[in-house]
Write a structure and sequence with these properties.
alpha/beta, 7 strands, Rossmann fold, single chain
Length: 332
């Protein structure tokens, strides 16, 4: 196992700055630091996915921007930008809830690419607000099906090709709430905790295959997820029995559309481009040297201490056993 490249764990945010959003070492190597990379991104109709798809293409990558329900205006907009600016950007339909469509779309992307994908960015996700007691099975199933099973479906579809080539990168967008928990956040934290553990295990298992896994932990940013959250939350509010609403008056009031949290930029809101920039920097890093986790937010990052303790605990627990070389390859 000694021959495996070892990743450097980095949690600083300072190297997210710069006009291009990439670290100086990446820029020094190329004005188009992602040239030659093929990247499939899920959930590109809005938010981090939409910003990232265009950003990676402008940095030279061949991008497969995927979203549900194509044709739609968001797909047309991306295609128009690609044609106007001569970007290697392809818009494909992909609903992460459908294993059949996931397999079909990734196979189509591999055919266009002429081989396996270099990078998969799992970004599609939802958030349904409210107390846990109010999260019925329908809402809970949809949350896990999208945020967890969706990531697993796309990874399973892309990994055989990556393994055949002994290289690749899977980037999974998690959240601060994959480590931290707040009241009335629905099942969102539970899904992101699942993403964190599933992806860390995957990182260990893929070391022998030369494939990296990176977990992105954004804080609060103004993105399109708020609009869908408001719609899904309002639907949950309307269908849940009153007996489950009793005892949570403030949370229930906030679930109504008129009182829903704002979805657009708020005063001094952070720039959502910070997340695509961080992902682009990780993609540009040498294989085997990418961090397992990256916290992204210009302000508070409460999960950093948990990340540190988790790393130390994993190494202490597994470091001297049969899995030790895999864990150390991911963390050291």
């Amino acid at each position: 196992m000694a021959g495996f490249d070892r990743r450097t764990v980095m949690a600083r945010a300072g190297f997210l700055l710069g006009a291009s959003g990439l670290a100086p070492f990446a820029l020094a190597q190329s004005a188009r630091p992602l040239a030659g990379k093929s990247i499939l991104v899920t959930g590109t109709s809005s938010g981090f996915g939409r910003l990232g798809a265009e950003h990676y293409a402008r940095l030279g990558a061949r991008v497969f921007a995927t979203m549900r329900n194509v044709p739609r205006p968001e797909a047309d907009e991306l295609r128009d930008i690609a044609m106007r600016d001569r970007l290697d950007l392809h818009v494909l339909e992909l609903d992460v809830l459908s294993e059949e469509q996931v397999n079909k779309t990734i196979a189509e992307a591999e055919k266009i690419n002429g081989g396996p994908l270099d990078v998969l960015v799992n970004n599609a996700g939802i958030n349904i607000f409210g107390p846990v007691e109010m999260q019925d099975i329908e809402a809970t199933r949809l949350s896990f099906d999208t945020n967890v099973y969706g990531y697993l479906r796309t990874a399973r579809a892309a990994l055989p090709g990556m393994r055949s080539r002994k290289s690749g990168l899977i980037v999974n967008v998690s959240s601060q709430q994959g480590r931290m928990v707040a009241p009335n956040g629905g099942i969102y934290s539970a899904t992101k905790f699942a993403v964190e553990s599933m992806c860390e295990q995957l990182a260990y298992e893929l070391v022998p295959h030369g494939i990296d896994v990176a977990i992105i932990q954004p804080g609060g940013f103004p993105t399109g997820i708020g609009k869908r959250r408001a719609a899904l939350t309002a639907a949950l509010h309307d269908r849940v029995e009153d007996i489950h609403k009793q005892g949570y008056p403030a949370a229930v009031a906030a679930m109504k559309p008129a009182d829903a949290p704002p979805t657009g930029p708020w005063p001094n809101a952070p720039d959502p481009m910070d997340v695509p920039r961080a992902i682009a920097e990780i993609i540009a890093m040498p294989a085997g040297k990418r961090p397992l986790r990256r916290a992204v937010h210009p302000g508070n990052k409460p999960q950093l201490e948990i990340n540190r303790v988790s790393q130390e605990s994993q190494i202490a627990w597994l470091g001297d056993g049969p899995s030790g070389p895999l864990v150390k390859a991911v963390y050291d």
